[in-house]
Amino acid sequence: MDRRTFLASGTAAAASAALAPTSCRTTSVGSADVARARAGLATLDALDDHRGGHTELERAALAGADHTLALQQGSASERVRSRLFGIAADYTAAAAWSAIDARDQERAQLHLDRCLVLAGLARDPIAQVRVWNSVAMLAHQRGRHAEALAAAKAAQATGAGRRDPLFASLARARAAVAHSGLGDRQAAQRSLGHACDALARAEDRHTARPSWVAFYGGAELWALHSIVHLQLDEPQLAEAYSHQALAQLPGRFARNRAMATARLALAQLGQGEAEHAAATGSRVFQLMAGAPLPGRMRTLLGDLHRGLLTLAPTSPAAREWADRHRDDWSRS
């Protein structure tokens, strides 16, 4: 069995074991139950970092949410109940993100609607940031840039967005993507500047944060710079920022590296470099090592495929890419 396939399947099995419902014969629920309920979240986040969103991850996350909510039937303090609602919100947010990554927008919306309620019941500002971040991403995916901007501002307005510069930076970066989608270059640049300043402040802190936000740091911020400049039709800047993102991205984020590589190929294509773009795009399949491509990645590669055929339909690079695209796409 391929090492990556073994890793993904092993991680999925571990997640399923961690989230398997257990019979609760006691009517009292306390901190130990909260800790056990939370235990599967990091496993799911690691699986997402490696492989991206997929049905198995989504189902495991929903099972975790259901099991956590079932604990509410026992006797518990108000603090424990709030923490359980927060954990259920995190599991549901993981399911929503998996659906967003897979580009299953209707299912993602259903999960996010539920997640907003759970995060509100928990009165958990970090869970609220997570939900609004995903709402912004789903709105961006649908081309609803004004809605994405409103979600990014809602994330900024949460207690976590106001107090923790890391979450403030993430919210500002999402706002920059929304501004660029609306064609407002000045506002996008301003938001990126605020995001960079906030991230610099966050790096001076030694604050414990949940595993879901481990993806966000300098590398991800450069990747978001690239998205902004691609949307503003500035492919040279997008290419430069993609290179910076890839240079800093930790090795465990295989899916994010493949996404950044696909955007690098699109930036090269935007500068008329068909052969270079085709070669870069081919690396995406190598990075995913035979794992199914999440929907967002397939969309980027589809854009690259159409762009190559439009720019240089008879070139050897375009023909070679078409053959590879057809074969590797069918296997993914």
Entry summary:
By secondary structure, the chain is an all-alpha fold.
Describe it.
The chain has helices at 3-19, 31-51, 55-70, 78-101, 105-122, 125-141, 145-157, 159-163, 165-181, 185-203, 218-231, 235-248, 254-270, 274-288, 295-311, 316-331. The two termini are 16 Å apart. Residues 1-25 have low confidence and may be disordered. With 332 residues, it is mainly α. It has a domain at 31-123. The chain contains 16 helices and no strands. The longest helix has 24 residues, at 78-101.
Distance between the termini: 16 Å
Helix amount: over 70%
Structural class by SSE content: mainly alpha
The percent range for strand residues is under 5%
Query: What would the average pLDDT be, to the nearest integer?
Result: 87
SSE arrangement, N to C: HHHHHHHHHHHHHHHH
How many DSSP E strands?
A: 0
Any low-confidence stretches, pLDDT <50, length ≥5? 1-25
* Largest sheet geometry: none
Return Rg in Å. 20 Å
Q: How does the overall form come out from the CA principal axes?
A: globular
Q: Total number of helical segments?
A: 16
